[in-house]
């Protein structure tokens, strides 16, 4: 599985549709202060099912919707699409019936979030599981936030262990056990 494209529309400062091609290997985002580098990383976490407004640097989830600028009005919705190349067919069961997987998350003011996977409605939980199993979820150490390296250096052993578990790909198992215990 490989992330190949990120499309944003009305997400934070990305008011106009933006299509980002993700090439193989390490990706870095560079640009002047305030140009939207952190917003891009947040879009990636958000489409993977991040549900804590604080992780999006907002007070509520609707704060991810473009809220207007001097010359442009606010938008009513935000949408982020993530395209995954699944030609290796390594996606978890339930997602593994196509060579390409497109996850779309859309939030509308006063109507909350909705997710689609290859044009079919899915639950937030399904999307979170997909990425937890693939060790690339919204909490994944593959996405390095600003200031995260120093946080890790200063972290308590338990917090550091969580990062290692995520990297080892076993956090999806924890999530499934938790879900099984609730049933
Ligand atoms: P730095 O180099 O300082 O870390 P950055 O490139 O990471 O900057 P971001 O933090 O991604 O920049 O982008 C900040 C910009 O996004 C600000 O100009 C802020 O006003 C804008 N922004 C954030 N949320 C919204 C929103 N909901 N609507 C419109 N603009 C927004
Ligand atoms: Mg930043």
TrEMBL record:
Top-rank lineage group of the source organism: Bacteria
Location within or outside the cell: Cytoplasm
Binding site for ATP: 32-39
Known role: Required for chromosome condensation and partitioning.
Family to which this protein belongs: Belongs to the SMC family.
Assembly behavior: Homodimer.
Domain notes: Contains large globular domains required for ATP hydrolysis at each terminus and a third globular domain forming a flexible hinge near the middle of the molecule. These domains are separated by coiled-coil structures.
Name of the protein in question: Chromosome partition protein Smc
Organism in which the protein naturally occurs: Rhodobacter calidifons
Lineage: Bacteria, Pseudomonadati, Pseudomonadota, Alphaproteobacteria, Rhodobacterales
């Amino acid at each position: 599985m490989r992330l190949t494209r990120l499309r944003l529309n009305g997400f934070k400062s990305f008011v106009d549709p933006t299509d980002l091609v993700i090439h193989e290997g390490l990706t870095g985002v560079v640009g002047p202060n305030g140009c939207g580098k952190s917003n891009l990383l947040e879009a990636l976490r958000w489409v993977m099912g991040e549900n804590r407004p604080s992780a999006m640097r907002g007070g509520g989830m609707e704060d991810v919707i473009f809220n207007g600028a001097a010359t442009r009005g606010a938008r009513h919705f935000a949408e982020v699409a993530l395209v995954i190349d699944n030609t290796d067919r390594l996606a978890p069961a339930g997602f593994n019936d196509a060579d390409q997987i497109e996850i779309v998350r859309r939030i509308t003011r006063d109507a909350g979030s909705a997710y689609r996977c290859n044009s079919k409605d899915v639950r937030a939980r399904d999307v979170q599981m997909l990425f937890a199993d693939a060790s690339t979820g919204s909490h994944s150490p593959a996405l390095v936030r600003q200031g995260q390296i120093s946080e890790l250096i200063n972290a308590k052993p338990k917090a550091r262990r969580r990062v290692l578990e995520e990297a080892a790909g076993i956090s999806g198992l924890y999530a499934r056990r938790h879900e099984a215990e609730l049933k």
